[in-house]
Design brief:
heterodimer, A: alpha/beta, Rossmann fold, 2 domains, 6-stranded mixed β-sheet, globular, B: two-stranded antiparallel sheet, 11 helices
Chain lengths: 529, 338
């Protein structure tokens, strides 16, 4: 059992508590979901359980933590390694070695386990997590889902009693994310493992959750069963939102919990409406014809053709490694490709990147790569200078209003929250008023509030006539925005059509609403009245 | 050939030969051998780039070294032209011999660079970390990781450069590259912190007994002091036996301290170092070659060396030199095994 009493923690040189007077008990063999807005202390809470806080972070800590008889505050993370496994948000950054098998054995080597036992344990974990096919492969060559599995294997190999996962599915496509979560559940069942997962996308986790810990903005927490905590949240997962809308009691928390008579439209008094889809009749502003590209002599894009219209949000879906980011980079000229690219009927295939980027704003996956100036205002001025443009400070303040950043214009971008930093990055790539905006995984690591703010912003841009090409794994977010959907698989377009078809006919991209109301065209809670 | 110790012997042998011979024929032979081996070791999709990068480095070294030596060293009998004597440093004769001498230096630098690159290609991080004495495990492991961090930093730099281009930065002038620096430092530090957190939470540096750290430091200082004292006494013509005694005492203290300190780390190794017949054979070949070269350099005039001064002459060429030049190719003959 994990027992926490009166835990308070402050990071060095801060007066605010990251955790304040936290009490909770977590039973063995349970899966606990930790939720809360960005900056509420989810990661800090997890780090306290394995001793990274305060041993690694510094700071002031008080209270008691008991993790199956060990005291992380006194013992430190290296001594808890055999009892507590920690999987970080970005698997790539936590790997020590370059070969899968070596990475898995690392913790055992540190514990001084004999070679014979090490081989037996590595063999066992590789078999249990079905990693045999990639055992001897380089970590740099495997997919995102496989990397996350390797990260989990590398901590499970020590047979820990507790597994801590910090946003383990934030970079994964829905299928890979589901595989990881099912794996956690089977480990919990078969080995009595206690699992704590911090995650923003509740809809993914709730089916597997025993307890929920909700971190509050005052750095305290509420703990209870999902049915005690979830209905009181401000932003509800779609299935709960539909249940609430239909006045169901008890509220369903998962698709499986949803009453079958309601989902098959047999309950009197409940109607399901066909979604009214926005038809965009405007002209194409971007047209791609027969685009192909290679990476390391392997074809990664194969004869891609599609168009993007004015005032349209086109969502690009696909599994990890299917070629989505490569497609964006190829269009922008950031990687070599063959084929034709037209902007407002003018061929720009041979134009230099700087000329292309005058018309297309591009938000890459990591917004931190874009930001380096002292203030938000300076960031905007630098982009303007690069494009040979000038605007008054008042114009820039007005521009920042739409990003809800006007009051923070003199703050350092890196001092802002994840969501705010994402919006600063967006502002820096759109200040020159491009007609087209490419967005690559803009919701990565964002909480519901930050995602809602982004969603409103993108809709506003669409209404102003922009064409938006959005790449995302976040199916619910995509469904709320898409005017049209393109699905890409192994570098080929396999679908180009309406959101209703994309989110209801392709199981990998089903929304929760589509999973509840099978054989209908509903894919959003708004479609249910 | 996956035995890291044999690769260390290979590297020592190659470096000794490259540094001891200044014979351009043997150096060219070594370079051909190294390029062939590197081409074999590099991954198929990276071969072209690997060869291109190393070849460009070699050519630039030969040119720069030749130019620098030609300009600043005015020895040699074959005068090509003359700069006025009153020109600081470069004034005087520019000779063919000094240009050739510089070019040979370039060949040596290029060969060393290639050897180290092949060593890196041949061994994984895991194998490199295996070479670290256990007493230095934490610091050695950190240093190994720091070295392997360079490729990831290069990758990050490329991503950040791309991100800055997205903002309209043309990335043409040196000042255009400044925006890369800050994000690169910040993200590299963030990555390093995550890596160290990940390593610590997987038991890295979990020392079982920590209480004799000070004793180890005192012992190492005392051992070093003993060796240093022996050297000083030797300089002032004291009986050599005293110096030898101090060397032995100091060396023993250092070795015993390292063994004792190493035993505190209960680190084990997942892979057994392979010692197959071919590994033993190769070790014998490399060791013999190293010993022969050292004996040849200490006790005999090095028959493989060459100097273009005072007047350019044809370098010597014998079967012994050709054999020593060809020894670095041996790993190509051995299929990978573990």
């Amino acid at each position: 059992m994990i027992n926490i009493e009166g835990l308070s923690f402050k990071y060095p040189n801060t007066s605010q508590y990251a955790l304040e007077n936290v009490d909770c008990q977590i039973k063995q063999g349970t899966l606990t979901l930790i939720i809360g807005p960005s900056g509420s202390g989810k990661s800090t809470f997890l780090r306290c359980i394995n001793g990274l806080v305060p041993h690694f972070s510094g700071g002031t800590i008080s209270g008691k933590i008991d993790v199956f008889g060990s005291d992380p505050i006194n013992d430190g993370p290296e001594m808890l390694a055999s009892n507590v496994g920690f999987v970080f948000q970005e698997p790539e950054a936590q790997f020590v070695f370059d070969i899968v098998e070596d990475e898995i054995a690392f913790a055992l080597e540190n514990m001084g386990v004999t070679r014979t036992e090490m081989h037996a344990r590595v063999d066992e974990i590789i078999e249990r997590l079905e990693l045999s096919s990639i055992r001897y492969r380089s970590i740099h060559e495997i997919s995102g889902g496989e990397k996350q599995k390797v990260a989990i294997a590398s901590v499970l190999v020590t047979n820990p009693k507790v597994l801590l996962l910090d946003e383990p599915t934030s970079q994964l496509d829905p299928i890979s994310a589901d595989q990881i979560l099912r794996l956690c559940v089977s480990l919990k069942k078969n080995t009595d493992l206690t699992i704590l997962i911090s995650e923003h996308r509740l809809e993914r986790l709730l089916p597997y959750t025993d307890n929920v810990i909700k971190m509050n903005n005052d750095h305290n927490l509420n703990m209870g069963s999902p049915s005690q905590i979830i209905p009181h949240l401000q932003n509800l997962p779609p299935v709960v939102a539909i249940g609430k809308k239909l006045g169901l009691n008890p509220l369903p928390l998962t698709v499986e919990d949803f009453p079958k008579n309601v989902s098959s439209n047999r309950k009197p008094g409940i109607k399901l409406v066909q979604p009214v889809l926005q038809e965009t009749n405007s002209e194409s502003i971007l047209e791609i014809k027969h685009l192909s590209a290679q990476f390391n002599q392997e074809p990664i894009l194969k004869n891609i053709s599609f168009s993007l219209k004015q005032s349209e949000i086109l969502v690009l879906l696909g599994k990890n490694g299917s070629g989505k980011t490569s497609l964006l980079r190829s269009i922008l000229g950031l990687m070599d490709s063959v084929g034709e690219k037209f902007f407002k009927s003018q061929n720009f295939s041979d134009l230099p990147i700087t000329r292309i980027l005058n018309q297309i704003g591009y938000l890459p996956q990591n917004p931190n790569d874009l930001l380096f100036a002292e203030t938000i205002l300076d960031e905007l001025k630098i982009t303007l200078k690069n494009h040979g443009l000038e605007k008054t400070d008042q114009d820039l303040i007005d521009f920042l209003q739409q990003f809800k950043l006007a009051e923070k214009l003199n703050q350092h971008p890196r001092d802002l929250s994840v969501g705010e930093r994402q919006r600063v990055a967006l502002a820096t790539v759109t200040i020159h008023d491009p007609d087209i905006i490419f967005l690559d995984e803009p919701t990565r690591g964002l909480d519901y509030t930050a995602k809602n703010q982004l969603s409103l912003l993108f809709k506003e841009w669409r209404n102003f006539g922009k064409g938006i090409l959005l790449v995302t794994h976040d199916v619910e977010f995509a469904a709320g925005l898409a005017d049209r959907v393109v699905i890409i698989e192994a570098g080929k377009i396999i679908f180009n059509g309406s959101p209703a078809d994309a989110f209801t006919k392709f199981p990998a991209f089903h929304t929760q609403t589509a999973r509840i109301f099978k054989d209908s065209e509903m894919f959003l809670p708004e479609h249910v009245i | 050939m996956k035995n890291a110790y044999i690769w260390v012997l290979w590297l020592i042998n190659t470096i000794i030969f490259v540094l001891s011979t200044r014979n351009p024929i043997y150096l060219l032979l070594v370079l051909i051998v190294l390029f062939t081996l590197g081409n074999h070791k590099a991954k198929a999709q990276h071969r072209k780039a690997w060869i291109g990068l190393n070849f460009r480095f070699l050519i630039s070294m030969v040119l720069i070294s030749s130019l620098v030596n030609g300009l600043f060293t005015h020895i040699g009998l074959t005068k090509l032209f003359q700069f006025p004597e009153n020109w600081l440093l470069v004034g005087g004769d520019i000779t063919l011999e000094s240009l050739i001498y510089g070019a040979i230096n370039g060949l040596i630098i290029g060969s060393l660079y290639l050897s180290i690159n092949i060593f890196n290609l041949a061994l994984s991080v895991k194998q490199l970390s295996r070479l670290i004495p256990r007493a230095f495990h934490p610091i050695g492991m950190t240093a190994t990781l720091a070295l392997t961090f360079f490729p990831s930093i290069q990758q990050r730099a490329r991503e950040i450069k791309e991100a800055q281009m997205i903002r309209g930065n043309p990335m043409k002038k040196i000042s255009d590259w400044l925006p890369i620096l800050l994000p690169l430092i910040v993200t590299s530090l963030e990555d390093a912190i995550i890596l160290s957190e990940s390593m610590t939470s997987r038991g890295f540096h979990a020392v079982s007994r920590r209480n004799n750290a000070n004793l180890a430091v005192i012992s190492l200082v005392f051992g070093t002091f003993s060796i240093f004292s022996g050297w000083i006494l030797n300089l002032y013509a004291y009986p050599q036996v005293i110096s030898i005694f101090l060397y032995v005492v100091g060396g023993s203290i250092i070795i015993l301290t390292l063994i004792k300190k190493g035993s505190e780390f209960k680190v084990t190794h997942y892979h057994q170092v392979p010692w197959q017949k071919i590994d033993i054979l190769l070790s014998i070949v490399f060791l013999t070659s190293i010993i022969l070269q050292i004996i040849s350099a200490v006790f005999f005039e090095n028959s493989f060396s060459y100097s273009p001064y005072p007047q350019l002459s044809m370098p010597s060429f014998n079967i012994g030199g050709v054999l020593l030049s060809a020894i670095p190719i041996l790993p190509i003959l051995v299929s990978d095994h573990d």
